[in-house]
Amino acid sequence: MVPTFHPGDRLLVESLTFRSRAPRVGEIVVAADPRQPSRELVKRIGAVDRGSRSAELAGDATEASTDSRAFGPVPLADIQWRVVGRYWPPRSVLSPQNEAMPSTQAESSAGSM
């Protein structure tokens, strides 16, 4: 797959959802890097194991991504943020459904809020 995000993209994230439920497969999240906890990773949830309270993180660019295949599952507590959109660069605004939409549509949607 092609990467959903690129260096320099600005993301809109929120943390309230994960206070009331666990992450779901397919959601894009921000988690602490298990190899370097001061660093954050943006990955997609590949699997959730409620018994061990952990999740597997998967990169969209499988061949070039470092994800749970390299460092194993991460504790759910290390997944702090859910990505709800991309606001920069404007040419590639990402909707809350994680689908790309033209920036003119995003701007008109934002203006009606």
Short recap of the structure:
The protein has 113 residues and is of the alpha+beta class. It is built from three helices and six strands; from the N terminus they run E-H-E-E-E-H-E-E-H.
| Principal-axes shape call | globular
- Rounded to the nearest angstrom, the distance between the terminal CA atoms is 33 Å
CATH superfamily name of the domain at 10-87?
A: Umud Fragment, subunit A
The neighbouring-strand order within the major sheet is 1-6-2-3-4-5
Beta percentage is 35-45%
Q: CATH top level of the domain at 10-87?
A: Mainly Beta
Q: Compute the gyration radius: what is it?
A: 15 Å
Oligomer: single chain
Backbone structural class: alpha+beta
Helical content (DSSP H or I, runs of 4+): 10-25%
Number of helices: 3
Tell me the CATH topology of the domain at 10-87.
Umud Fragment, subunit A
Q: What is the averaged pLDDT score? A: 83
Show unreliable segments: 98-113
Number of strand segments = 6
Q: How would you sum up this structure, described in words?
A:
- This protein is 15% helix and 37% strand.
- Strands 1-6-2-3-4-5 form a six-stranded antiparallel sheet.
- The N and C termini lie far apart (33 Å).
- It is of the alpha+beta class and 113 residues long.
- It has a domain at 10-87: Umud Fragment, subunit A (Ribbon).
- The chain has three helices and six strands, in the order βαβββαββα.
- The protein is globular, with a radius of gyration of 15 Å.
- A hairpin with a 4-residue loop joins strand 3 and strand 4.
